[in-house]
Amino acid sequence: MKTFKETDLENFKAWSGAVDTQKAIIRAGKAKVDEFDAMIEELYPDGLSETALNDLLWFEDEWLFETLGISEDDSL
Predict the structure, then answer these.
(1) Confidence of residue 47 (pLDDT cuts 50, 70, 90)
(2) Looking at residue 1, what is its pLDDT?
(3) Taking the model in full, what pTM does it have?
(4) Three-class SS string for the chain?
């Protein structure tokens, strides 16, 4: 299943710990959301499953924030 090919961050229904990361990226602004979407498409050209995308948001939040240039203050 290629979930991320069919949706974007704002429309993805995250669960558990991924919800906070998703909300933080969205709060950081449309440019950061677009940057996240483009980054995921580049890293996973064949798409991602819902679980893989959720796990990325949940467990790789620090890396995502650093890569996207979102500070700790922005993510709160």
Answers:
(1) confident
(2) 46
(3) 0.89
(4) CCHHHHCCHHHCCCCCCHHHHHHHHHHCCHHHHHHHHHHHHHHCCCCCCHHHHHHHHHHCHHHHHHHHCCCHHHHC
In the block, residue with structure tokens 């790789």: 60
Mean pLDDT, residues 15-42: 96
Environment class of 26 (CB within 10 Å of its CB; exposed 0-12, middle 13-18, buried 19+): middle
Q: Are 2 and 44 in contact (CB under 8 A)?
A: no
Cα–Cα nearest to 6, from 35, 49, 43: 49
Amino acid letter for position 9: L
Tokens of 13: 């229904």
